Amino acid sequence: MDYLNTLTHDELVSFFRRKKAEISCMEEPHIFLRQLRDHDLVPEDLYKKVTKRRIRKRIEEGVYEILDSLENEGGEFVKRFWSCVFQDHILQKYPVFRALRNSIQDGPFRNYVTLPNAENPSRRNEGERQGKKQAQTKKAKKRKMADKEADEDKAGPSSGSRQKKAAMEPKSSLLLHGGKLLVTCGDKRGTLDTDKLAKGEKCICSEDQWFIPVEFERFSGKGSCKNWKTSIRYQNTTLQKLIKDGHLKCPKNYKRSRSKSPMVCFSSVKSSNSQSMSSRETDKSSDEYITDDEEEEEEEEEEEEEEDSKRAHLSTLLTLPVSCGSVSGVLYKSRFSGGSRSKSIRTEERWFTPVDFVKQELTLTDRHWKKDILCHGKTLNYLVKKKILQIHSVQCSCAVCRPGEKEQDNDDVCYICNSERNLVFCDKCPRAYHHHCHLPTLQQEALRGTWICTYCVFKCNQKLWIQMNRKGAMNSPVSMNMMRCEYLLLFLYKADTQRVLTDDPTKTMGRCTDVISKPMWLNKVKSKLQENKYTRVKEFVDDIRLIFKNCQTLNRGNKSGKMMAAKLKMFEQEFNSVFKIH
User: What pLDDT score was predicted for residue 293?
Assistant: First the structure.
């Protein structure tokens, strides 16, 4: 690029100033902007701001803003700019820079640098003559191109130009069968049912699944595009272009228009090549950009789909995470039917009615449970209106709503096995247990009067225990650490929701002993602990580690094996916390 060294900074800046608008109108400027960023010609924050834009007009404004900032930096930056954009990969991508480089090399750019001066008529006349000469040259080129196209048309349908135009036109006769199109998005292929598209239904079938266009876009890994009309294509033509040209039609707001009567959705492809080519040139930019109205429609559609998805998900849940300021808890739908009268929100310490739960947030002055309690950012009032939560009438006489009925302060299911009936309730916390699920196993004599579960006893005593090292913890007698061992075993029972570690694997898995030499399971550890067969904590811990080791051996190479490794790590961390190992 030695020719740049022959020019002054003022000449390069003046030429740059007059070409900013032309440069900012380029197609797909993202590679150009990355080139500027890589050469430290655009600040990172400005680069990110412009590249996040989706509307073509706003992108052009952003590019012009970047060029303005470059001009303000001065001549040295402008010279670096020209060196940067005159590199081969940029010249191949953007014809505008090829033309500008030729203008600089051949010299006519000086007509832009030095403007006509009223005090120098000869220079003005010379500029006018140069301009006329260039106009005549362009007209001659146009006439030659017109003559060439006429000759090619005479050559018949086998001519290269005609074949090229035909190739760019969607070939509906090959892939359209009974209102169905073969479409692609990313690396996924599917069949688009145009009738279902018009009705706003799930219209794309891929891998034996039906999707609406937005879902198919996400399924193909293109969800970040957030514009299915441009990311889903038929024969390298976007659905947006087919819709705009009248070949396809769909509801403006896909979700809201599902109940409307179906529209005619696919017309015959235009046969005139000249009309198709002119339409393609006119709408060339519409494949990559969307208008302000289209973007608003897409955003509204996507927001509504997300809302519908969230509501559907919340409707399937039995419990909902709720919060009020800094206070958090879990709302149980089965208990909420009494509304403000029912103890339906559980915290670690106890059950609350919605009214009492709001009172736990001391910073609130004007408390109202329907608007102050939130679930995933939505108020309880919103969840009731959307029928995610149900409130019974005041006259309802069910077990939850019955007037005067003392509501339970404890859980409705066992804390360990998550099943109902014959429960024993802790008088200090909300937990409930079956006799055989608790450790130690509950005897009727122990339940007379006030009864406190092992979790609560452990929590009260933990504050009194001193720190230990690992060797000292392992060698300490089980008899002096029975509560800690029982707590750890309850912790494992609670974590084993699928009951994989609980029962004898030799009874549930065939030929188990062919793989593992010493089977071990939680119920056996529980029996040995209650029968005082462990003398040192190390023996108890070794049996638990053996359970995880056996499970990893039986599930080597699959997800269950990795899950067991994670659970063993979780147990080790809990062990360190329980024994206060430093």
Answer: 52
Within 459-557, strands assigned E span none
Q: Which two tokens mark 281?
A: 């040139």
Total-model pTM: 0.49
List, for residues 242-279, the tens digit of each pLDDT value: 888 888 878 766 644 333 333 334 443 334 444 444 44
346, pLDDT greater than 80: yes
- Helix intervals (H) in 191-270: 194-199, 213-219, 228-231, 239-244
Mean pLDDT throughout 44-49? 84
Residue 353 falls in which region: left (phi positive, over 0), alpha (psi -120 to 50) or beta: beta
What is the rounded distance in angstroms from the CA atom of residue 11 to the CA atom of residue 104? 10
Handedness of CA 103, 104, 108, 112 (dihedral sign): positive
Is omega for the bond preceding 116 within 30 degrees of 0, making it cis?
no
Specify the pLDDT at position 154. Answer: 45
What are the DSSP calls for 140-188, one per residue?
HHHHHHHHHHHHHHHT-TTSHHHHHHHHHS--HHHH-SSSEEEEEETTE
Per the CB < 8 A criterion, the answer to whether 397 and 337 are in contact is no
* Distant-in-sequence, close-in-space partners of 85: CB < 8 Å, separation ≥ 6: 32, 35, 91, 94, 97
